[in-house]
């Protein structure tokens, strides 16, 4: 008895042909992988350096430390952490609405020629060195704000943040925050502008076709699509404000106090500013103390970036093509 021959198995899926990697693909893939590894190694090396060099600052005996002067490191660094976060938060609150408004005007309201000129100006402002902003804030901007501060103190002094005695020089935490807001405004505006321009035209045209006004189209189609990009730009600006050194150094005096008042002559300062001011005279354990302050700033900045990535990842499933 003969066994019947079986035909070809039609249920088997044909195997997909393997892609052949060209030399250029291998070079690009290896370069990208190497660049990513270098970034991780550099970040790890910086973290290890800060941790190792910061250990002497946490010694229980700080009597010989000319910066701590007998107090614990956490008690010494806390006012500067507060000043860093406080000044950066005020700068972000001031700059974020302005950046979004300017970016919307450039991308959806301004004529093409005016939009191009404004875009170039914003990009040029992002390239101005921070020391220039600091000199402008200390020598020009602060004296201009003195009458305004006195008016706030006279008319709104019943609000705690505007109470006390207004500074006669204008060099306050509010002035430093406004200078930081001007510094982070260009980069936030540039990012928001590019994100707004990526909004699918079909969404915009559909909103307009349904009878929406220009602002309603922006509110319903542009802003929801660009939400994650706005958060990314805001966090990037906040990261720059947290690490800014020269602008704050030239405006504020190095006082380690905690106060929410915005107009007083005595103001909290930031970690980068205190490191820049105290490092030339630091020696022995004082250097380790300033490095430990840098470690705290590193942790704060890393936490801000981590929160930003978490917020952006929550919007990762949203796509303009959906």
TrEMBL record:
It holds the Pfam family BPD_transp_1. Gene3D superfamilies: MetI-like (1.10.3720.10). One of its GO terms (cellular component) is plasma membrane. It is a multi-pass membrane protein. SUPFAM superfamilies: MetI-like. The keyword Membrane applies. Residues 81-308 form the ABC transmembrane type-1 domain. GO terms for biological process: phosphate ion transport. GO terms for molecular function: phosphate transmembrane transporter activity. Part of the binding-protein-dependent transport system for phosphate; probably responsible for the translocation of the substrate across the membrane. Belongs to the binding-protein-dependent transport system permease family. CysTW subfamily. This is Phosphate transport system permease protein. It comes from Microbacterium ginsengiterrae.
């Amino acid at each position: 008895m003969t066994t019947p021959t079986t035909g070809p198995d039609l249920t088997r899926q044909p195997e997909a042909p393997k892609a052949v990697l060209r030399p250029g693909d291998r070079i690009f893939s290896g370069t990208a992988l190497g660049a990513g590894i270098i970034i991780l190694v550099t970040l790890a090396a910086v973290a290890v350096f800060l941790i190792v060099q910061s250990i002497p600052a946490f010694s229980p005996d700080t009597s010989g430390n000319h910066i701590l002067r007998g107090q614990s490191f956490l008690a010494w660094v806390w006012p500067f952490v507060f000043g860093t976060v406080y000044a950066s938060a005020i700068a972000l609150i001031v700059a974020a609405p302005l950046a979004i408004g300017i970016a919307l005007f450039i991308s959806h309201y301004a004529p093409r020629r005016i939009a191009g000129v404004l875009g170039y100006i914003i990009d040029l402002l992002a390239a101005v060195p921070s020391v220039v902003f600091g000199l402008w804030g200390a020598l020009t901007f602060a004296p201009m704000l003195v009458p305004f501060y006195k008016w706030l103190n006279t008319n709104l002094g019943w609000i705690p943040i505007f109470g006390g005695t207004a500074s006669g020089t204008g060099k306050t935490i509010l002035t430093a925050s406004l200078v930081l807001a001007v510094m982070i405004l260009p980069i936030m505006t540039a990012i928001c502008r590019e994100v707004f321009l990526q909004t699918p035209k079909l969404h915009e045209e559909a909103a307009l076709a349904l009878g929406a006004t220009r602002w309603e189209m922006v509110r319903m189609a542009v802003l929801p699509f660009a939400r994650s990009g706005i958060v990314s730009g805001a966090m990037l600006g906040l990261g720059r404000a947290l690490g800014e050194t020269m602008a704050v150094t030239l405006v504020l005096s190095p006082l380690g106090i905690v106060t929410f008042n915005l107009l007083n002559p005595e103001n909290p300062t930031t970690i980068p500013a205190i490191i820049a001011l105290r490092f030339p005279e630091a020696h022995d354990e004082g250097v380790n103390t300033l490095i430990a302050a840098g470690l705290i700033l590193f942790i704060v900045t890393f936490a801000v970036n981590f929160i930003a990535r978490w917020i952006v990842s929550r919007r990762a499933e949203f796509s303009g093509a959906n």
